[in-house]
Amino acid sequence: MRNILIVFMLTLFLVACSSQSAKKNAGETSASGGQNKGVAEQVNFTDLSNSVFKIQTYNGTRLLETGQCFVVKKGVLVAPFSLFEQADKAVLTPIGGGKSFETDKFLCYDRISNLILIQCDTLSAKPLNLYFNSNVNGLKTILIGEKQNNTLPLFSGASLQEKIVFGEKLVSISNSILTVNIGTPVFLSNGYVLGLGTAIDLNYERAFFAIPAQTINALLSKNEQPKPFSTIGNPNAQRNSAIKKIILETDYGNITIRLFNETPAYRDNFVKLAEEGYFDSLLIHRVIRDFGIQTGAADTRNAKSDDVVGWKGPGYTIPAHVVPGLYHKRGAIGSPRKPDSANKEKRSDGSQFYIVTGRKYLDDELNEIENENKIKFTPEQRQVYKTVGGSPHIDGSYTVFGEVISGLEIADRITLLPIQNDFRPVQDIRLKQVKIVY
Asked: Among 373, 234, 353, which Cα is nearest to 285's?
């Protein structure tokens, strides 16, 4: 009898363990995000479509861009930032059908991640649930098409793997996304959202990704106040001309700079990006002894040690503005650009900048540079290059738009660090933050 009781108890134990294991495995292999309790038995994608919108942006009456967006918080939608560069309003239309809404306000954006949070107080659509689990490989993905003849098309695919693309963490998906559908939510089979769908050209082929829910959530955590679209990229020139100094906080210490009012487009662009937080956490990715240090490339924020970086900017370039009297003396700040063969107008990169540490030059060297580059140094320039130093060989070809006023020794120390073949420091050195002092 005692043996029978033991067998019975052991059987109950094994059944209980098997049941708990099955429940655990179901939760692990299914999609679940944040506080998700498990897989929904039945997902009504028709209901979810009420929170997905076609978005059209306008400047006045002129249509700019078309894409999609979706609700992530009451009255708040996430959309691709690239739709809003010159916009002053947006029209939202549910993809499942219904009346359109208009808004002209946003909360915040991340130019590097290509995300913006827009506000529309008249919306009553429910927020979609976001997927926050680290397991992203091999999940079933679903895109919702626009409703046609009372039919809501669903397109199935799969999440492939997490990748670093131009310095950003993205999830590769097998679904195809049309240009007018960029911004669509990438759903999982339980109705949660893996991320915002986007398309990127890689090696002359179009690849499709989800900008992860974690990146969207980081933007939601900022709790910014609503602002009109018209303030995006619209500099306050009078305010910017009165800036006292700008502090570049690096892993090695602070470098304090000032921007020249003689190059207002470069000044205003730098201030705009700094206020966006664009420069925060970017690498000082290029270090050349006897020349200087370079930073501002968007693909360096999450770059791995073996990634080739320095190729991603804010999505635009700036016309060259070479001002006589602003030259590459030690401490000068300039804007890099693509070579003349691919850039006949010598337009500057939209976000990268370098700080000149340089070296001292002899008269014979300056004479040779004049002959090769067909330029003429003033007596003042010659004296500075001989006694203080700089990089005279790029004068006249690159725009100088600022100078260091303290902390140049920090740049000197960084130029002495060991580097890889592409001049990237072996040890990651970051531009942690840029602070503007008015």
From this structure: 353
Q: Residue 188: in which H helix or E strand, if any?
A: strand 185-188
Q: What is the pLDDT of residues 378-433, one digit of tens each?
A: 999 999 999 999 999 999 999 999 999 999 999 999 999 999 989 999 999 999 99
**Local structure of residue 235 (DSSP, 8 states):** -
Cα-Cα-Cα-Cα torsion 369, 370, 371, 372, nearest 10 degrees, comes to 50
Report the CATH number at residue 57: 2.40.10.120
Could you say which DSSP state residue 425 is in?
B
Reported in sequence order, the residue ranges of 62-165 that DSSP labels E, i.e. its strands, are: 62-73, 76-79, 89-94, 101-103, 105-110, 115-119, 140-144, 154-165
147 near 126, Cβ under 8 Å?
no
**What does the alpha-carbon distance between residue 179 and residue 162 come to, in Å, rounded to a whole number?**
22
Q: What's the domain count of the chain?
A: 2
The Cα–Cα gap between 129 and 34 comes to: 9
Task: Tell me the pTM.
Answer: 0.85
Domain span at residue 381 reads 235-437
- Decide: 436 and 277 in contact? Cβ < 8 Å: no
Rounded distance between C-alpha atoms, residue 363 and residue 383, angstroms: 9
> Cα(320)–Cα(397) distance, rounded to whole angstroms?
9
161 CB-side CA count, 13 A: 3
